[in-house]
Amino acid sequence: MLNWQELQPGDLVDVDGDYNSYPRTRITQKLDDVSRESGLAPGPGFIGTDERGDEFVFSIEDVIPSSYEKYAFAESRRINSILSLLIKEYVQ
Question: How would residue 17 be classed by pLDDT, with cut points 50, 70 and 90?
Fold first, then answer.
């Protein structure tokens, strides 16, 4: 299980709810209690947007733990690649 404190707005995760799955969900806001924003059971969670841009509320329990690591690693590699290209362009 993920630690709620680890995840921040801007992070990408996969969400597997009771009825739907949402791959590549971008966290837009952290919530101390999702029940205040939705019909979900009380507890920590997030507001996020799916690949189509639809916004929804989800609980920390619905986040697939391995997805955070997968996307964090991919984004880190992407940023390093972009920085390398910028450095090469600046040096030339």
Answer: confident
C-alpha separations of 9 from 47, 52, 67, 81, 84 in Å: 9, 18, 15, 23, 26
Cβ atoms of 7 and 70 within 8 Å: the answer is no
pTM: 0.75
The amino acid that residue 48 corresponds to is G
pLDDT tens-digit map of 37-50: 999 999 999 999 99
Neighbouring CB atoms inside 10 A of 70's CB total 14
Q: Dihedral of CA 69/70/73/76: which sign?
A: negative
DSSP output for 25-65: EEEEEEES-GGGTSSSPSS-EEEEE-TT--EEEEEGGGB-H
Contacts of 4 (CB under 8 A, 6+ apart): 30, 44, 60
